[in-house]
Specification:
Blueprint lengths: L19 E3 L30 E2 L1 H4 E4 L2 E8 L9 E3 L1 E8 L2 E8 L8 E8 L11 E10 L5 E2 L2 E2 L4 E3 L2 E7 L2 E5 L5 H4 L2 E3 L8 E8 L3 E6 L2 E7 L7 E9 L4 E4 L2 E4 L6 H6 L5 E13 L3
Length: 286
């Protein structure tokens, strides 16, 4: 694929006549020798994970115009599990816009890590009953090998999902994609292996609709009912089965010394996803 011109309009949109203005505060061509830490949060204020730690000093690097995010097992990692990885989380937040990144999946055989491009808000427990506490839009999650309706996905299956928390009876109530599959779960099967090359993943978010694109092709859309909160832009490489187990609404680390499958797959780490660029636009006049 020929590299795209810096600052151009999104590769494809649902409204071709719209004019978009790029926001360099959360866009990066990775032309330096490291991520631009004026745009991305290096330490502190990163998503809370129970299965691994974020260690950007070791796991977020730039070389020859490509950002690399690496997942590893390291006895020196801050987290007790020894698992650590890298994440780019923007300081800037956006309610609406167009979000696009050119990504190559992680060099890992089978299930174990998940390259992700996502948007997520802070939690606000002061909202009223029935209102949204937390908003999350997954522009793309790769290599999840998810189970759905008795079928296990393979590496060609991409997840383009929505998560949120609403206030119900004065408490947080998670709304996950599988429980609300008609409006929050999207799967798209790629005719290619996302680990083999770079592909462009995009998402258009406005007050009424959320639309997903892959390589300029619309692949899913949903009504925007709960995804209006200001959201950070993030690229990350998370862990998946067998290194973690999803339990009690979170990924918990699996001890490779006690789990045969996790122990056998340690030799496949470290694994790295690569990002050519990430670009964020807002619609002109918004």
């Amino acid at each position: 694929m020929v590299p795209l011109a810096i600052g151009q309009q999104p590769l494809a949109t649902s409204q071709p006549d719209s004019k978009w203005e790029i926001r360099w505060s959360a866009s990066d061509e990775f032309v330096g020798e490291a991520p631009d830490w004026k745009k991305w949060i290096r330490t502190g204020g990163l998503p809370i994970t129970t299965g691994w730690s974020w260690d950007n000093a070791r796991n977020a690097t730039v070389e020859e115009g490509i950002a690399s995010l690496t997942a590893r097992h390291d006895s020196d990692a801050a987290h007790g599990s020894g698992y650590s990885s890298g994440i780019l989380k923007s300081y800037r937040t956006f309610r609406y816009g167009y979000f696009e990144a050119r990504i190559q999946g992680a060099d890992f055989p089978g299930s174990g890590v998940c390259p992700s491009f996502w948007l997520f808000s802070s939690f606000d427990d002061k909202v009223g009953e029935g209102e949204t506490v937390y908003s999350e839009i997954d522009v793309v999650e790769l290599q999840q090998f998810d189970w759905w309706k008795g079928h296990q996905d393979d590496v060609h299956d991409l997840d383009l999902n929505l998560h949120c928390v609403v206030r119900e009876s004065g408490k947080r109530a998670w709304r996950r994609p599988k429980a609300f599959s008609e409006t929050q779960l999207n799967k798209w099967r790629a005719p290619w292996d996302p680990r083999a090359d770079f592909h462009v993943y995009g998402c258009e978010v406005d007050e009424e609709t959320i639309v997903w694109f892959v390589d300029g092709k619309e692949v899913a859309r949903q009504p925007n009912t709960h995804w209006h909160r200001p959201k950070h832009v993030a690229l990350s490489l998370g862990f998946r089965k067998p290194f973690v187990k999803f339990q009690d609404n979170r990924n918990r680390a699996v001890d490779p010394a006690e789990d045969l499958e996790a122990g056998e797959k340690l030799s496949d780490l470290p694994a790295t996803m690569r990002v050519d660029y990430v670009r964020v636009w807002e619609r002109a006049g918004d």
